[in-house]
Amino acid sequence: MRNKPQKHWTTIGYYKPVFDYLRTVGQSNEPALKLLGLRESDLSNPDLRIDNGQFGQLFELAEQQCNDPHIGLHAGLTMQVQHVGIVGLLAMSCQYAREVFELHARYQSLVGNGFVTRYHIDDQTICMEAELAEGHRPLSRHEYEYNLAGWYRLKSLLIGGQNVFERIELPYERSDPPSLIETLITAPVSYGHKAIRAYIPRSEYDAKLLGTDPQIKQILEVQAQKRLLELRGEQADTDEELAQVRRLIAEKLAYGLASLEAIAASLDISVRTLQRRLDQRNTSFTQVVDEVRRELAHKYIHNNELSLLEIAMMLGFAEQSSFNRAFKRWFGNSPGAYRQGGD
What we know:
CATH architecture of the largest domain: Alpha-Beta Complex
Largest sheet: 5 strands, mixed
Helix content: 40-55%
Strand content: 5-15%
Protein name: AraC family transcriptional regulator
Structural class: alpha+beta
InterPro entries: AraC-type_N (IPR032687), Homeodomain-like_sf (IPR009057), HTH_AraC (IPR018060), Tscrpt_reg_AraC-type_HTH (IPR020449)
GO molecular function: DNA-binding transcription factor activity; transcription cis-regulatory region binding
CATH class of the largest domain: Alpha Beta
Strand order of the largest sheet: 3-4-7-5-6
Number of strands: 7
Shape: elongated
CATH topology of the largest domain: H-NOX domain
Organism: Spongiibacter pelagi
Keywords: DNA-binding, Transcription, Transcription regulation
């Protein structure tokens, strides 16, 4: 399993605050739209994917237009929840802050695949770490500050807290004069690190959020899972190595042999190497197994010659009850009701 370079992209919705900010300061969007090869109407399609190679030039152009050496920071601080699409809607439906963190980790690739985001939790802090995906071009200071300011803004809107971040680590050197980041984001900042890291008090993990609707969350999460699986399918179509992992899992599920160790052995690589390469693709072995099971379940459920117990066994579930729970999570209904409804 050789590691091939990946194409990196982000949805235009995530960068719409740049265009909104240009309007706010009296600048035209036409030069920026022309640079990205877009029309004004494209800004209304939040799922439209743009090659990440273009965003460095976007911030250079915006800086020149506005004569603003802190354009990334200023634009990022105007971000709204709707700019991250269905992930933002899901976050607004959460009851507790921990659900927001979990959703971000699970569905980050619906917004873009340029960063690999992880959460590290201990007794004192929650650390959100965002590292550039392997093979991604280096980012400019504006791009890093835009991302950090956007996260700062979204955390303020969704979770609040007296101090949004306790401290921040940035993957570039401190400029002279220093960036406004040290005054606009009220947290100690250090430089020269491997990744962006933002630290949040551990006490906020279980904070209860206001105005939530668990029923809407369930509906939205079914849609988010569907989009994520479609995205993984697209990736598998163009990523020979990922497709090979998926094929091996599908072949071994019914025999109870689709373990991480078994797949790594079939690929003649170590478990750690397989985990790392999947991590670089913004996924995990558990996620890939879940996606393959879902696709096969959708195929098998339409074959009336197969009983539900047989389908559960073919998918490698030890008990039919486990299959039933997974099926409802995937499709929003029990397998029996789904089959009767003809969905």
